[in-house]
Amino acid sequence: MSYLIMAGIDYENSNVETREKVSFTPSAIKRAYEKIKSEGKIKEAVIVSTCNRSEIYGISEKINGEEYLKNFYSSFFNICSQEAEKNIVLRTGFQTIYHLFQVTNGFKSMVLGEDQILGQVKDAYKQALINKGSGKILNRLFLNSITDAKKIKTQTSLTNTSVSVSAIGIKLIHSQFKSLKGKKALVVGLGKMSMLSIQYLLAEGISKIYVTNRTRTKVLDIENTADNIEGLDFKCKQEAFKDVDIIVSCTSAPHFVIHKDEFVNNYNDNPICILDLALPRDVEPEIGTLDNVNLYVIDDIKSIADKNAKKKIVEYEKGMEYLKEDVIKYINWLSSEGIELNDCNNITKSVFHEGISV
Fold first, then answer.
1. Known active-site residue 51
2. Model pTM?
3. Residues 196 and 123 occupy one common structural domain
4. Residue 49's closest CA among 8, 2, 101?
5. How far apart are CA 92 and CA 13, in angstroms?
6. Which one is catalytic: 51, 250, 273, 344?
7. What φ, ψ does residue 47 adopt, rounded to 5°?
8. Domain range for residue 105?
9. pLDDT tens by residue, 72-128
10. How far apart are CA 95 and CA 348, in angstroms?
């Protein structure tokens, strides 16, 4: 008997302060896989880490392996057992399979059906392969969940009505200024969410965007896309504080990249909106206490996302039917391979309609 297990922290059960403590940076992911393999309690493992969730999926040969994963979080990130007990959700067997399929489709995202999570799950699986963490059972589980998500995106219009985290963040800023025409912005970091933010800012008619990133070539590339985009050296980003109305920051740094002292010394006291889409956070929270400063973090987007989700419920329900069929296909594959997995024997689609908690 093999045991499919999962432990995780996400935006539904934890605040941003807790989530940033357990965010896996690229170097931390490598160390985590090395630690898991050296301890030998888990045969297979895949780590999924985004701004809204930190999850470890595993295959254990012994029962209660999920407790090992919970304790792993405590020891690896040095969080106390009480905080771990309060925030970490444990899943096993069928619950884990069903959860991953929903995660990969964006059905458990802050923005229902959002696109970015599929790429993040793909990247997580790729890192598991690079670090030799995944094996036969998790390989098939992740590949099936990715294939299912691609199918649902083509068979439903959920993606067409999806609104990204970046878009909602820019809408929050728009609500403060009423119009972004004539405004200036600084974008710190040039990952996917930052690039989307730049697109939305340009669409709103913003007059100037300063961009900065530790990798200079990325700055040069984005500079060439529009006449009103100007690159800055990362070490000189504070020079733009006095000139801009908006700051959007989303880097992968494990620490603050905009500090209160540096901000105060370069800020001109005019109204400014700051959108911090990073986790761990990029912007020192005390900046949000300053007069004329509106600081939004990733959790501020949730209330708007919840309203948008109500409009997409029909397409979501259609997608869930495809998802359930593909969950059962994976379970049938386990049976065909002679793999006995906890809580997964003799499960059919009827389990979704029998009042069983899924």
1. yes
2. 0.80
3. no
4. 8
5. 18
6. 51
7. -105, 125
8. 3-160+312-353
9. 999 999 998 889 889 999 999 999 999 999 999 999 998 888 888 999 999 999 999
10. 14
